[in-house]
Design a protein that fits this description.
alpha/beta; Transcription Regulator spoIIAA; 3-stranded antiparallel β-sheet; 12 helices
């Protein structure tokens, strides 16, 4: 870990970056890194006043002292990988924490002065009933204090994982659709508004970092496998920590590959991303007659209805 942190800090010193409007420590379990080490990386990032700084945390790997260090370093948002509030479902997902750990972790963050808390939950695990999923959503809403942001994702099958090789554990589309509808009903009733297909937030507490991704903003990724974007050019770093550390130590480029989007591709991608959000897309690009019930018009924009969000990928292919 020490070598990796040093490499991240070194990469930062070699860059000339404008002040960051947001910083997100993610892509794994950053809370495993000693809090002082994480703070040392953050110290090397120039930020705008009031910048959003998020750390992803496993409820099992946090402590009051860690949150105090985070806050002193400028962290003002925490995202907990909760996944489920049902022990049997957590076991099916290979998670080690218990629901009680989530309750304790949220209280620790609040006691340290962190007011913006997100929880990630996942629906569609093998054997999970819709009532168990309701237990998870109700459990999240019952946390004290209640999270200001909830990200709810359908379980996906990634090639090369144990899940991919076990057909009996693959999620069912109809089951996931039912759970998504229930999620939106419960979170909306609790005052969390859907602002992107898989994300709900209290007004004003939307994740600024992700909003930048969805609006094709420029960002710089630091560390192994980190992705960056600058005006239509996307690139990503070497995937493994060992290779990344070695390249930084030898003063070599850490970029593994890149792609440059042409103007037409960028324009279509902008529409695809905007369609996923509550700001929607210009009405002129949507064939309204073909999508009755799936979209609705708000002023000069068109947004997906709840039913439409379930079919977002298909609807995106119809954008003009």
């Amino acid at each position: 870990m020490a070598d990796y942190v040093t490499a991240c800090r070194t990469e930062l010193t070699r860059l000339s970056l404008p002040p960051a409007t947001s910083v997100f420590f993610g892509g794994g379990t950053p809370s495993l890194i000693p809090p002082d080490s994480l703070a040392s990386i953050l110290a090397g990032i120039d930020r705008t006043p009031g910048a959003e700084v998020t750390v992803e945390c496993n409820p099992d790997t946090v402590s009051p002292a860690a949150f105090e260090t985070y806050v002193a370093a400028g962290v003002n948002r925490i995202s907990f990988g909760v996944q489920s509030m049902v022990p049997s479902v957590l076991a099916a997902l290979g998670r080690t924490h218990e629901p009680a750990n989530v309750t304790a972790a949220v209280r620790m963050a609040a006691a340290a002065g962190i007011e913006r808390v997100n929880v990630d939950i996942i629906y569609g695990a093998a054997g999970e009933t819709i009532e168990q999923w309701r237990t998870t959503v109700d459990g999240v809403l019952g946390l004290d204090p209640m999270p200001t942001h909830v990200s709810a994702y359908g379980l996906t099958v990634e090639p090369g994982t144990p899940l991919a090789g076990d057909q009996s554990r693959h999620p069912d589309d109809d089951d996931q659709a039912d759970k998504y509808i229930l999620t939106d009903q419960l979170l909306s009733a609790a005052g969390l508004n859907n602002y992107e297909i898989s994300n709900w937030a209290r007004p004003g507490d939307e994740c600024r970092h992700n909003l930048l991704y969805w609006s094709q903003g420029n960002y710089r990724g630091i560390g192994c496998a980190a992705h960056s974007h600058q005006d239509g050019r996307r690139w990503w770093n070497l995937r493994t920590p060992e290779r990344y550390i070695a390249a930084v130590g030898a003063d070599l480029s850490v970029v593994a590959a890149e792609e440059v989007l042409d103007g037409e591709t960028r324009r279509f991608e902008a529409l695809e991303l905007a369609l996923r959000t509550s700001r929607g897309v210009p009405a002129a690009v949507v064939p309204l007659d073909d999508l009755d019930g799936f979209v609705e018009q708000r002023g000069t924009s068109v947004v997906l209805t709840r039913k439409g969000r379930l079919m977002a990928n298909d609807i995106a292919t119809r954008l003009r």
